Amino acid sequence: MAQGSKSPKSQFQLILVAAIFIVALAAGGVFFLTSPGGNGVSEAQAATGEAGSTIPMEELMAKGPLPDVVIGDPDAPVTIVEYASMTCPHCADFHENVYPELKKEYVDTGKVKFIFREFPLDILAARASMLARCAGPDRQMALVSALFQTQRSWAVPGDEQKSMDGLLRIARQAGFSKESFDKCLNDQELYENIVKMRAKGSKEFGVNSTPSFFIDGKPLGREHQLENFEQVLGKADTGDTAESGSTE
Question: What value does the mean pLDDT take over residues 162-176?
Fold first, then answer.
């Protein structure tokens, strides 16, 4: 096969790998990167991570590379921020089995606002995050939910073509055409900003695994069942927010 210039797709892959790798080194973290078709997430990397220091809310909520999409009342008294990778099985489990009840009990009742932030652990996760962003703020979380629900059908280790076909199939259901799908995945500014989202989470807030949650700036820790949220949110309900880093 004759050598020539790399295709835009190949250039996209190489640049994203390089960008994430540089981000990882700068943040002092260890990240799992694989081929674009791979999951790239070990069970340990996705699930573990000790709770760190409380982050001041003015820092956690400072403007980032991409605008936050707030689910719930923007003026809700408590803020939950999630960092997640679209190929992370534990993230999918949370969004399928915990988030619906958390949303019903706390977000829909005006007690909590929920913010989802991208922390892609591999190229495929970055692509899925790009598609969710391209869907627009009104449809982003619906596509995030659909991608998590169907994760096993498109996050196929070692099979890039099957992964991309799966992403396209789900994107079509969300209103994408093949042309808009390709345009989204070739948006260089968007993918750079998603990489920066990961960098900011890692370097500034110590995120090193997914999913990672902050409740009013307080890291939730490695367990993310409903009762774990309720233990912290119960303190917030009583006004005991001093240790969670809330600011007036």
Answer: 97
* Cβ(181)–Cβ(9) below 8 Å: no
Nearest to residue 54, comparing CAs of 205, 174, 247, 179?
205
75 closest CA partner among 40, 113, 101, 39: 113
Q: Which two tokens stand for residue 13?
A: 């892959």
CATH fold for domain 8-115+125-238: Glutaredoxin (3.40.30)
Judged against a pLDDT cut of 60, whether residue 1 lies above it is answered with no
Q: What global pTM score does this model have?
A: 0.79
What HEC string does 104-162 produce?
HHHHCCCCEEEEEEECCCCHHHHHHHHHHHHCCCCCHHHHHHHHHHCHHHHCCCCCHHH
Determine the Cα–Cα distance for residues 110 and 138; give it in Å rounded to an integer.
Answer: 19
Which has more confidence, 222 or 33? 222
- What are 91-135's pLDDT values in tens digits? 999 999 999 999 999 999 999 999 999 999 999 999 999 999 999
At 30, the amino acid letter reads V
70 within 8 A of 194, measured Cβ to Cβ: no
| pLDDT at 43 (0 to 100) | 39
